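HUMAN: I'm a chemist; might I ask for a sequence paired with its structure tokens?

ASSISTANT:
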Amino acid sequence: MRLRDEQKELLVRTKALELLVAEGFNGFSMHKLAKAANVSPATLYIYFQNKEDLIVQLGIEVGQKIHEVTFEGFDFEESFEDGLWKQWKNRAKYVLENPIAAAFIEQFRNSPYKKKLGDEYFQEFRNNMTKFLKSAIKKGELIPLPKEVFWTLAFAPLYQLIHFAQDGHNMAGEPFELTEDVMYLTFKQVIKSLQP
């Protein structure tokens, strides 16, 4: 039995993310990955059972990282506005610094592979968000809204700004760079729509 090589495994995971984003889940193959990582196809099966196992493992890994980053430095006792702003900054920083991982998780979220994880995988994230939102409602800092409405109002504007930043231009084709000032201006408008 061949032993795991941590550096090689990291290279394989990195190349897998790159290929999955570039080729899509249907265009991706273990053979293409072996070639891109400059390893034998047999090496891949030391780390993963098959293509599905690789994609699910990457989904877990990237999803957990996003969860960790979202709540980095987070205090459940702080105000709703401060807590949501911290989440905005954390999410924006992660997505802009990790565009391939962010693109992969979007693909993963909209694929049948997400169902392989089961609901329990997302439970900690849901619990944290529920705790945060219930506390804000109880303190009178957030109007009660259906979850879908809250999520759309609270985060869609942020991700649109991130898309503009990744494109390097706005909808009019003018150059765009996401600054904290622009992000905060948008955030303040979002807060107005969420607070009583």
